[in-house]
# Entry
Amino acid sequence: MSSFGVVRATLMKDLRMEWRSKDAINSMLFFSLLVVVIFSFAFNPTAEESRLIAGGLIWVAFLFAAVVALNQTWARELRNQVLDAYRVSPAPPHALFIAKALGNFLFVMVLEILMAPLFVVFYQLRSIGPVWQLVVVALLGTWALVVNGTFFAAMSIRTRNREIMLPLILFPISIPALLAMVDATTMILTGDGTPDFWLKMLLVYDVIFTSVCLLLFESVLNAE
Amino acid sequence: MKSLSIAFIIFTLALLGFSTYQGLVAAPTEATMGDVQRIFYYHVPSAWVAGVCFFVNFLASIAYVLKRGSNADALAAASAEVGVVFATIVLITGPIWARPVWGIWWTWDARLTTTLVLWLIYVSYLILRRFAAGGQTQMLAAVLGIFGFVDVPIVYFSIRWFRTQHPSPVMGGGQDSGLAPPILHAFLWNLLAFTLVGIVLVAMRYRLQKMENQVEEAHAQLALEGGAR
# Structure
């Protein structure tokens, strides 16, 4: 089977399982809803203030929620020895990684689409800058979180304290991406400057870390 | 070999004593900042040693991924630990200096923030080493070592942009604009002494790591033989 075939088969399998169980998306949705409510109590912002802090709130909520889904990515495959089977099969390792990363990307994007109206309602958000730029930030930023997240999830399931390990290694590496997403979002919402630099930064981050992940995934898959 | 390394350690300690004297006594008191400037003799060399350690960790991690030698892994572990220790010294001595000179303990300026993020990355590296299971530790750690070092320039540029966009709360500590000869003199002695201390610590930690690996292998071997009996 070609790389493309493996990617498609794995991705369709994950999407179908998610469609039937809705485990990841439900837990992410509820989790980020809780974060939205708790932040709202904690800061109690006016419409003007929330424009300034919303960038931070939105992305921190999505980052935390994404960790919930990322932690489940590989658990199923490990339990049923799929990874061992995959290792002895001639299928290319990077195809498996791309499929998993794409799957997580779709889950988190769906989460963002569903949660965005709620943010607008709860924080009385109205963007001063062009809204289409927010979509670009979301696409680039989500990939930045998810590509490293998928990779580090594959690492953290091999440790003794699985679930807690992922945020511990993912968050420090993701700081520049998060900074770019938060600052770009704040710039767009307040209409204060253009986020061009941050968009380029995110693009560079995505390209660099996608390459590093693809290069090193085989080593992680075969680590014994 | 052993006597040679002991001689090297003694020489390093003597040099450290001499450079401490140079920094604390022989060097003149700085005109505007006063004695607090003397932290500089520890702060900058520590940052240098930490940076070199993290770079060694990066190279050793790449070597491990390519060749899978346990020596490369031992070197990576040793340099990361020593690097975190020196980065901690940097992060502690920095605020002690900043408080009287800038009037604040901390500011989110590019260099400070980059050092802090660097520290966070390598602490997470050490945590991963601690919690990874058995034989996979080395490969997982090597991979994270590569990720961590690749991230460093990205962190630096993003934070520098972030800070130049926003008004800076304090003036940057402009020490780079040339050092007076006696201060430079004391600084270079300390730089040399700290570099040697770093080498000694990494070398000792490296040997310890190799011994740990040997003990672990011996245990595994013993368990295998016990199972056969």
In short: The two ends of chain B are 40 Å apart (CA to CA). The CA atoms of residues 138 and 172 of chain B lie 40 Å apart.
